[in-house]
Specification:
This protein is mostly beta strands. Helices cover about 10% and strands about 65% of the residues. The protein has 2 helices and 14 strands, in the order H-E-E-E-E-E-E-E-E-E-E-E-E-H-E-E. Strands 1, 2, 3, 4, 5, 6, 7, 8, 9, 10, 11 and 14 form a 12-stranded antiparallel β-sheet that branches. Strands 12-13 form a two-stranded antiparallel ribbon. Strand 10 and strand 11 form a beta hairpin. The radius of gyration is 26 Å and the shape is elongated.
Length: about 250
């Protein structure tokens, strides 16, 4: 009996969607993207382009999906100093400068339920929520670093630095989703949004939070990790807030 009832409900929903007027939309947007659980990386602006399909269920509710191409980006541009001891037992000042940027490109499919609240016969607000699934297809990550060390002595409470300072620098880059040291490709999370619709045009804001970690061995504080002051590793997730605009049209028209 339960199976028959479930089949009847599914058939009814399918019939409702099939006989409804399907809407197709094109949209583009930009916003801030970043990661959680890390104290060094800053959110950067990313972009988003996509095609969407909306299946109305009734005058209020609809099912939304589509395909989006999006960029997630975050970076470090920071300098820190630390006090250490050389192999000869002398006091040393250490300066570390890191300039690192990660760009990740995903193909993403959202699956959301949406509710439309009309303000008049031409415009209204639409609220949407649901899961998304994304897969990393490209991107590049880069790292530039500079480390400066100098010995010092303390005389009558006055610190005097030796003029000779040692400088070392380096750079590296790799594909964001490389097998050896890249991020995990699969991302599944929650997507929320609200749009203002006027006739066939719409503009809105959205937010996303990833449920899957992009990396399971990520330093919480990169600088403390390098100086071996804190070896705590975390599993950060993707987060983002974006603004978008778009245009919709009816299938078959």
């Amino acid at each position: 009996m339960k199976r028959q009832l479930l089949i009847a409900l599914l058939l009814g929903l399918s019939a409702t969607i099939c006989y409804s007027q399907v809407k197709i939309n094109a949209q583009a947007g930009t916003g801030l993207t970043g990661i959680t659980k890390n104290e060094n990386y800053n959110a950067n602006f990313g972009y988003r382009f996509g095609l969407g399909v909306e299946f109305p269920i009734d005058r209020t509710w609809s099912l939304q999906t589509g395909l989006q191409l999006l960029n997630r980006s975050y970076s470090i541009d920071e300098t820190v100093t630390a006090l250490g001891t050389s192999e000869k037992g002398k006091q040393m000042y250490i300066g570390l400068d890191i300039d690192s940027k990660t760009n990740a490109i995903y193909l993403q499919v959202p699956i959301k339920m949406a509710a439309y609240l009309p303000l008049n016969d031409k415009c209204g607000l639409q609220f949407s929520a649901g899961p998304y699934i994304a897969y990393g297809i490209g991107g590049k990550s880069s790292l530039n670093w500079l480390i400066a060390t100098s010995e010092s002595i303390d005389t009558d409470n006055l610190t005097v630095e030796f003029p000779n300072t040692s400088l070392k620098q380096g750079e590296a880059s790799h594909k964001t989703f490389s097998k050896d040291r890249g991020l995990k490709r699969l991302d599944i999370g929650l997507s929320l949004g609200v749009d203002f619709k006027y006739k066939r045009f719409f503009a809105g804001i959205g937010a996303e939070y990833g449920f899957l970690p992009i990396d399971k061995e990520f330093p919480k504080d990169l600088f403390k990790y390098i100086f071996q002051e804190d070896q705590k590793l975390v599993s950060p997730r993707n987060i983002g807030v974006e603004l978008h605009v778009g245009f919709c049209f009816y299938a078959g028209k």
